[in-house]
Write a structure and sequence with these properties.
The complex is a heterodimer. Helix content of chain A is 29%, strand content 19%. Chain A contains 18 helices and 22 strands. In chain A, the strands form 6 sheets. In chain A, strands 1, 2, 3, 4, 5, 6 and 19 form a 7-stranded mixed beta sheet that branches. By secondary structure, chain B is of the alpha/beta class. Chain B is built from 10 helices and 17 strands. In chain B, strands 1, 2, 6, 7, 8, 9, 16 and 17 form an 8-stranded mixed beta sheet that branches. In chain B, strands 10, 12, 13, 14 and 15 form a 5-stranded antiparallel beta sheet that branches. A 4-stranded mixed beta sheet of chain B has the order 4-5-3-11. In chain B, helix 1 runs parallel beside helix 6 and helix 1 crosses helix 9. Classes of the chains: A alpha/beta, B alpha/beta. The interface between A and B is large, with 97 and 106 residues. Strand 22 of chain A pairs antiparallel with strand 15 of chain B, so a sheet runs across the interface.
């Protein structure tokens, strides 16, 4: 039978190695999963991206680091040492025979599907700071954790505004946070625990700010912080972060009424070099999305989460989710054992499905925490009321809230026309339900190098708010590989199948496709092999 | 039928070809309705290289005439930018680039050869291994995502209608004509029907007992973070097509495609594959000065091809009121002209500005049913889920 030499046939990429089970993420869930499967006799590779490449951290990938990394993060050997020291479970996993790969990120998952049949096996794309490679797998456990929900205010682009997950990473894992005096936004357990962690590491906490009338987190934690002299300022929101030079030097708060509207004349300014957004966490589902796992919106779990069975298996056979990426909420912070238990369940189920003799029992259903998006909407309403519509909602592409809801084309086009002025989110809505990906294409909000990590949630919340659409009715914006921004030189393979090089053409290589319709010799890229009908 | 919704012309498919046809009809004063199963321009029409340099085509001259005035005609920005630079890293690539230029010259367009020094001045991110290139004083590129939305909005501005999230389920034929289009949102009467459904075009033709040989395939592209703007963004070579966008991103595709089974086209996602790495490699070869630039996204899409890779733009004999429009995987750049051609076929039965004989369906009258297998244009038979 004829094959089309210009097609992918025969050019399937060769994985560097094949592993029965890959676990992604070296937190409590990932390590527990890897240990459980290794003890059952399965060959396991555990991939953890820490220590993260400094250049990536500077782009706020994968967490909102806000430029508050100590220069020591450039020293990869030192950071590797700290990552190992501060997470002893990694060494335990290595001792149990797990192949632990640190400083290695996962940028893609490729699962054969109806339109990608040339893949011979499911693959993961891995990379360090120098090169990328592919690993084949039979089972995949995703334990990628959660990231901060970021809500902006005037000045949030400045170095010093960062997220709680990034604070935790830089303090507890890298010991490389440069903050001296921090204001924490959010009084849920996330905010309270972040404040405690900061105090433990000698960072002064100037205030905890809460938009609601009451502290949201555990009373005991709040009392401990109050006893240590940390003011918890309720019924307040942020008007702006101010700067002396480039960095944050203070934050301006304003009191809000029970409608989350600012009260005139109630501003107060607090000196600080760091503002930590600790409003909430959302599961890091990028990798799960790339596997094709079915995702569903569940507010108590922090937004879009994978649908899983009692053994944490997703809708894609052989792909499991465990820990915060399967659902993030305050209860998790108090009890990492829940994440460990999920990891163990996934590890056992994966091992059992690979033929290892382990018993699999479904996890007991977890208690249901409260919805979080209503509270996030209150925060956002207060920030919009206090800071106005001319605050960036997307930092990378410099799109303001106003430009988003008016669906303006980007400023660099310098375009105006009566027709364009007549278009808005409102007219777009008459043509169909609100779609964040469509608005992204028109305004560019979410198209930048941070891969929408800083704006994805606030764009969604703002669209929901502006159109009166329930958040769960706005389709999840797509994730695209590479889910870590990688240099061309890193992503590029060092070698390729010879057919890939020899038969590469820019389009299909059909000789008549680009030939002049008048008489003349055809365009034919040199190594065309296929036989066309009639030839 | 008196209470049936409908329009003089119903267009099946809100991709770039259907949208342009709808716009041309609407601005001519024709009552037009575009039916789109998802969001306008959502698939390959909105995710392609954005090239607007197809002078070889019967639509080529009209394409070149229209693009520079398209923003003004539509009332919305397309980000069209004129001119193209071809960069060659080998003598073979140079011959190919020159061949493209010479085809333009035959149509009366100007181009010049560039030496290494000239290319390095125009495109500072190329390396020392450049052997030469071309500067085309014609052609260009635009932003597909913005352009498809511009067509759609302009249709509405001229009084046309677009129904998104509306799936066409059937075509009602009576008396040798399609009198109505059946959809997930009711039945719409029509005097004339345009089928411009991209890879699905063949399925709708099948409903009418008409065979259109089309093979769908998945293709992929990558995009980098923005870098400083070059004077001409339409730079390509080394087996890649693409451009630098006005925002500064390098957006490129090329290389092997994957043939897709027709039933599999319905899959909701057309994923990227590890081919993104091979694309990155060629882009780094083309632009060594940008090898450190980060890839921030990649995507795949499904496009259709006829056996000779040329469009089918034709009005059927039976049923007599149907126009077929598939651009055979090269639709975006030619869209300003192809839509005008479709309008002419609807209104006059014949294109008024170009000879479309080469694009008639009749040329495939003798194409055997198993033509895909004979070409090797078929999908692999491979496991679709991880082995259990």
């Amino acid at each position: 039978m004829t094959t089309d030499a210009r097609s992918l046939t025969g050019k399937a990429p060769r994985p560097e190695r094949h592993v029965p089970l890959v676990v992604v993420g070296g937190g409590p869930a990932g390590v527990a999963a890897a240990l459980e499967a290794a003890r059952a006799g399965v060959d396991v590779m555990l991939v953890d991206e820490h220590p993260i490449d400094n250049d990536m951290m500077a782009m706020d990938v994968p967490l909102y680091f806000g430029g508050r990394m100590d220069p020591a993060v450039r020293n990869r050997a030192l950071m590797l040492q700290r990552v190992v020291e501060t997470n002893p479970a990694l060494a335990a996993a290595a001792d149990a025979g797990v192949d632990v790969q640190l400083g290695t990120c996962v940028w893609g998952a490729f699962v054969p599907g109806p339109t990608s049949r040339e893949l011979e096996t499911p693959l993961l794309g891995l990379a360090d700071d120098r090169r990328s490679w592919l690993v084949g797998w039979d089972r995949l456990i995703v334990a990628t954790g959660a990231r901060d929900v970021v809500l902006g205010f005037a000045g949030w682009e400045r170095p010093g505004v960062m997220g709680a997950a990034a604070v935790a990473t830089l303090l507890a894992r890298y010991r490389a946070l440069t903050a001296r005096r921090m204001v924490v936004l959010g009084s849920g357990d996330l905010g309270l625990r972040t404040a405690s962690l900061a105090l433990e590491h000698g960072v002064d906490v100037a205030a905890i700010v809460e938009v609601g009338e009451r502290v949201r987190g555990e009373d005991k934690l709040a009392r401990e912080l109050a006893d240590r002299g940390v003011p918890i300022i309720t019924s307040h929101t942020v008007r702006a972060a101010r700067a002396a030079t480039a960095d944050v030097a203070s934050v301006v708060l304003v009191r809000v009424d029970d409608q989350a509207s600012p009260v005139a004349g109630s501003e107060r300014e607090i000196a600080c070099d760091t503002v930590c957004v600790a409003v909430g966490l959302t599961p890091s589902i990028e990798l799960l999305a790339l596997t094709g796992a079915r995702l569903t919106f569940r507010s108590p779990l922090g937004g879009w989460v994978p649908e899983v069975d009692g053994a944490m298996q997703t809708s894609v056979p052989g792909v499991y989710a465990a820990g915060d990426c399967a659902g993030a909420h305050d209860g998790r912070l108090a009890d990492p054992d829940v994440a460990r238990e999920q990891g163990r369940a996934a590890g056992r189920a994966a091992a059992s499905s690979l033929g290892a003799p382990v018993a699999v029992a479904p996890l007991a259903p977890a208690s249901t925490p409260r919805d979080v998006h209503g509270h996030w909407q209150t925060w956002l309403r207060s920030l919009v009321a206090a800071g106005g519509m001319d605050v960036n909602v997307c930092q990378c592409e410099e799109v303001t809230r106003r430009e988003l809801v008016e669906t303006r084309p980007p400023r660099y086009l310098v375009w105006s026309s009566p027709q364009m002025s007549a278009r808005s989110l409102d007219t777009l809505r008459r043509d169909g339900p609100v779609n964040q990906d469509q608005i992204k294409r028109l305004t560019r909000a979410g198209m930048g190098p941070c891969q929408s990590r800083r704006c994805r949630e606030q764009v969604g919340l703002l669209l929901a708010q502006s159109t009166g659409t329930p958040l769960e009715r706005i389709p999840l914006p797509t994730f695209r590989p590479p889910i870590r921004p990688l240099p061309l030189s890193v992503l590029a393979p060092a070698d390729e199948p010879s057919a890939m090089r020899e038969d590469w053409v820019s389009w299909f290589g059909i000789p008549t496709q680009f030939s002049p319709h008048w008489d003349g010799p055809p365009i034919d890229e040199p190594t065309y092999h296929t036989r066309l009908v009639g030839e | 039928m008196s209470d049936t919704k409908g329009a003089s012309v119903v267009i099946v498919g809100g991709g770039v070809t259907g949208l342009s046809a709808g716009w041309w009809l609407a601005r001519t004063g024709v009552d037009v309705l575009v039916l789109e199963r998802g969001i306008v321009g959502w698939e390959a029409s909105g995710r392609n290289g954005g090239g607007a340099t197809h002078v070889y085509s019967p639509f080529g001259l009209e394409e070149q005439r229209l693009w520079p005035q398209l923003d003004a005609l539509l009332g919305y920005p397309t980000e069209f930018q004129p001119f193209r630079i071809g960069v060659a890293l080998t003598e073979t690539q140079l011959a190919l680039a020159r061949r493209w230029a010479e085809i333009g010259e035959q149509r009366g367009f100007r181009w010049e050869a560039l030496d290494r020094r000239q290319i390095k001045e125009l495109v500072p991110i190329v390396g020392d291994d450049v052997v030469g290139g071309t500067y085309l004083h014609f052609g260009g590129h635009a932003n597909p995502q913005r352009t498809v939305q511009a067509y759609a909005w302009a249709i509405q501005d001229h009084g046309g209608q677009i129904l998104q999230h509306t799936t066409v389920t059937g075509l009602t034929v009576r008396g040798g004509k399609v009198i109505a289009v059946e959809t997930s949102r009711g039945t719409f009467g029509a005097d004339t029907v345009v089928i411009a459904a991209g890879p699905q075009t063949g399925l709708f033709a099948d409903m009418l007992g008409v065979s259109v040989p089309l093979a769908p395939a998945r293709v992929e592209m990558i995009a980098t973070e923005p870098i400083p703007l070059m004077g001409v963004g339409g730079v390509a070579g080394n087996g890649l097509y693409g451009r630098q966008t006005l925002r500064g991103n390098l957006v490129y595709g090329g290389g092997p495609h994957e043939w897709v089974n027709v039933p599999d086209m319905a899959a909701p996602e057309h994923p990227s594959t590890p081919l993104v790495r091979n694309l990155a490699r060629r882009l780094a070869e083309l632009f060594p000065g940008a090898a450190h630039v980060r890839v921030i996204r990649a995507w795949g899409g499904v496009v259709e091809n006829t056996p000779d890779g040329l469009p089918v733009i034709d009005r059927l004999n039976d049923p007599s009121n149907v126009v077929l429009a598939t651009m055979s995987s090269v639709g975006f750049g030619l869209s300003p002209a192809s839509g005008r051609g479709v309008r002419d076929l609807v209104l006059h039965g014949k294109c008024q500005f170009a000879d479309l004989t080469a694009l008639s369906l009749a040329r495939f009258a003798d194409t055997p049913p198993d033509w895909r297998a004979r070409c090797g244009w078929i999908a692999a038979d491979a496991p679709m889920v991880p082995a259990q």
